[in-house]
Amino acid sequence: MPNALSAKLLSKIEARTATVGIIGLGYVGLPLAIEFAKAGFPVIGFDLDEKKVKNVNAGKGYIKHIPSAAVQEITSRKQCRATNDFAELKNADCVIICVPTPLTAHREPDMTYIVSTTTTIAKYLRKGQLIVLESTTYPGTTREVVQPPLEAKGLKAGTDFFLAFSPEREDPGNPNFSTHTIPKVVGGLSRDCLQLACKLYDAVVVGTIPVSSPDAAEATKLLENIFRSVNIALVNELKIVFERMGINIWEVIEAAKSKPFGYMPFYPGPGLGGHCIPIDPFYLTWRAREFEIPTRFIELAGEINTSMPEFVVDKTQNALNDCCKSLKGSKILLMGVAYKKNVDDMRESPSLRLIELLRHHGALVEYHDPFVPVLPATRKYKYKMKSVPLTRASVAKYDAVLIATDHTDVDYQMLGEAAKLIIDTRNAMKNCRKAKAKIVRA
């Protein structure tokens, strides 16, 4: 039987009168806030970024695939508001943590954001609250990193307050799936914790998948992304092997896709981007070392994927050599700096590494990206660059065009007719039958 605090919160969730606090209004937190507000829950969004707070309260969108109309809808009804005053956490019945979990320079988990957020929540924690961590992390984080600070003042998880882990499953820009249509895996610290978290998410997603513990939920997210990392590494390696054999990897993948069972297509590229696939596998390799278990397969995949920018630059250099030019001093137009097509998401984009390597070899690099007008500063890179216009005349001025991101809003036919040399890492030129440029797959 649920205790009195659990029963009270369960009743509020079912009536949709429970106030939901969401910490972090980025690619995960903002869509989640919109869904809870649309479902009728009062929502408070928390973020240290004053600009995000002001935009939400003004009903303005700031993420490409989330229209302002969606933000306007929930703020105009007074269903959602944003703040950077974390003292208001005491007014939330359910608190969902959606903060970044990057890697350090040594590829170890950087738990700074989770630790600081948990410490802040602990200041305002009260009996009867539900705390859910969504940030991707290694198995054991909820119990070992989040739970102790929350219990430091004497409240007990599972009895006085409730704790769960439910990994985010966002895929920015995917037209087929949204926050609402993607099932949520949920692991609770106790039976009451699991019941409350499932009931909360059941109100806004198509369904929840309960698992036995937060650790199992944490491991589920890592499995999902390690699966992708390993298979992408496989096709990246095969790309190199097949190229030596004179075989087009893209043609092979398309043919293999015709098999209706036992095969799932993955595609090569210039490197991995986004907040998940380049990072999450290393959370498990780090954790596995504590148990003295090697993760050779995962680490090898990481090595292959992180080496792809070097492969692309080598291909660019060789292609220029074939045109009697050196990479040093050549003008290179980088097509796309977002980590994948049709989004403005720059997290871990391989284009940033490509710029670094090309500049290191003496190339003069500019970029065009319809979704990223100005290159934002990141933890590692502080480029001061702006997207350049894309015209026949401007394209003709470059010694090579390097396609790193295959945005749909690009005239690839024009690119093929105006460019001298194209290095294509995304098979974007596959339908350009009348291209005059020399096209090199990389």
Notes on the structure:
The protein has 442 residues and is an alpha/beta fold. It folds into three domains: 4-212, Rossmann fold; 222-287 and 295-301, Orthogonal Bundle (N-(1-d-carboxylethyl)-l-norvaline Dehydrogenase, domain 2); 307-441, Rossmann fold (3-Layer(aba) Sandwich). It contains 15 helices and 13 strands. The protein has helices at residues 4-15, 29-38, 50-57, 68-76, 112-124, 141-151, 191-202, 214-244, 249-256, 280-290, 296-306, 308-322, 350-360, 392-395, 412-418, and strands spanning 20-23, 43-46, 80-83, 94-97, 130-133, 162-165, 184-188, 208-211, 331-335, 364-368, 400-403, 421-424, 438-441. An eight-stranded mixed beta sheet has the order 3-2-1-4-5-6-7-8, with helices on both faces. Strands 10-9-11-12-13 form a five-stranded parallel beta sheet, with helices on one face. Helix 6 links the parallel strand 5 and strand 6. Helix 1 (4-15) packs parallel to helix 7 and helix 5 (112-124) packs parallel to helix 6 (141-151). The longest helix is centred in the middle third of the chain and has 31 residues, at 214-244.
